[in-house]
Amino acid sequence: MTAVIAIMNHKGGVGKTTTTLNMASALAAGNNAVLIIDMDPQSNAATGLGLNAKAIQAGSYELILGDKKLQDVIHKTDLPNLSLVPATFQLAALSSVSPDDEDPEYWLRESLEQDDIPFDYVLIDCPPSFGILSLNALVAAHKVIVPVQSESFAIAGLQQMESSINDIRVEAGHDLDFRILMTLSDPSQQLHQLVDREVRAHFKEHVFQNAIPVEPKIAESAFLGRPVIFHSPNSQGARAYIRACAECLQWTQEEGDNKDLAAYRDTIVSGLKQWLKDDTITAHADPVQFDTSVKTPVKNHPPAQDANSLKVSIRNGVILALALTAGMALALLGL
């Protein structure tokens, strides 16, 4: 049976997409067929996997509306076992769907139920707001991962999230379990320690044992279009996501599967080692570039300068400015 997991928090900037990409990649490295469905119109999941978001013609928007079948909007990535249904800007139009439409929160689930899903895991990356897109993800999901940053308003936000999940349990008629993943955690900060303790005291077994630390390599990997577990597998951030994924595997295991966390972690690490040896997997070394193909015409535009001449021009400009400043100062002293 396919496990459908929504990655959700009403608040932005807590690491939803980063968590989606790294958990999905770790699951795939553990020899699971994994699909990411991007429900965020910003399309960050595509760029986070090194794909050109602007070249995508169809994705989750068409899937939700039933205009295309699941197999028609799946894009394979160069990471083995990992595929993506990307988001496009049209997805934002669903945020203003008419309340007169019949059960719009069920559209994604109905689209997924039309065909057999050839994946072990489906991870849904949700937008940073609680609207029709998030509702679709919750109704379609079996489980929810809630990334939470250690900050002052974390607990209030979590209680609101828990209330939303409970509402979906009643209205959609299915058992929707959730786990909280502490992200951007810095144990050296007293506030982070306090929030972490409070969250664990209130939600108990609903919190992942492992927290994701503040890690420069995580931000760097996102900029380069790669999950951190592949970009920098020995970093603290990568190790934390691998451990969290092992917990996710244990949480979603089928009855009778009694593997411990170490066994799941070893399977993921073994798969990653194979990826690192695979020459067909490109480790993107260049960040996503700004689109310079469309330029605003400028009248009497001077010839373009190369990098060295530009540096010289800047240096000469600085020298001239300093000289003028010194001249003015001497003139004032003379007065």
From TrEMBL:
Q: Cross-referenced CDD domains, in alphabetical order?
A: ParAB_family (cd02042)
InterPro entries according to UniProt: AAA_dom, DNA_Partitioning_ATPase, P-loop_NTPase
Q: Where is the AAA domain?
A: 3-176
Q: Name one Pfam family in it.
A: AAA_31
UniProt superkingdom: Bacteria
Q: What does this protein do?
A: Involved in chromosome partition. Localize to both poles of the predivisional cell following completion of DNA replication.
Q: What PANTHER family does the record tag this protein with?
A: P-LOOP CONTAINING NUCLEOSIDE TRIPHOSPHATE HYDROLASE, PARA FAMILY PROTEIN CT_582
- State the protein's name: Chromosome partitioning protein ParA
Which organism is this protein's natural source?
Terasakiella brassicae
